[in-house]
Amino acid sequence: MARSTTPAPDGPHRTGRPRDARIDDAVLRAVVEILNEAGYGGLTMEGAAARAGTSKPALRRRWPTRQHLVVAALARTVGTAPTPDTGCTHCDLIAGIGTIGAAFTTALGRRALPGLIADLAADPVLEKEFLDTFFHPRRATTAAALRRGVARGDIRPDADIDLLLDMLASTTYYRVLFGHLPVTPDLAGDVVSVIMSGVATDRWRTVHEAHR
After folding, report:
1. Do 42 and 137 fall into the same domain?
2. CB within 10 Å: which end of the chain, N or C, has fewer?
3. Residue 89: enclosing H or E segment and its boundaries?
């Protein structure tokens, strides 16, 4: 399940002026642009502030480090919207996992994710922010899609949900981190097909084959 997101430094519990969403949007757009152009090592708080037309103190009030900026940019770019419930289990899973691949076909994933993952190991606070803001929300919504599949009778009730979650997303992340093969538009569908071939019920196989 998703963990509760850590409140931002100037979030609802902070007194004073309300947070300006326009600054948030401008900064995160600037961060994505810089990451795509210069990579993880080329991002600085000063550079992001200048491109967004704001100040470094304004950034610091929202994100304490440039790594936190990258986490926020990834969450914004890849998104944490719920995996859709269309009544079709494998369609839902393809749509949900496909958003990761679609985001990482840009330079952002390859140029930012490896460096960020390396920094997580040395910074427990940053790691928690990454898990709470980006990783767990996405994982929770895909878990919900898998459980709907079990309830529909499409997926075996003894299926290991955590293992399936790892398998669904790991191919995309593996290719982004190591760059040995591309993240193609068909990758999500191919991965879901392989996984469903192992955990689908006979009822789902019969219905699926009839509609192919």
Report:
1. no
2. C
3. helix 89-104
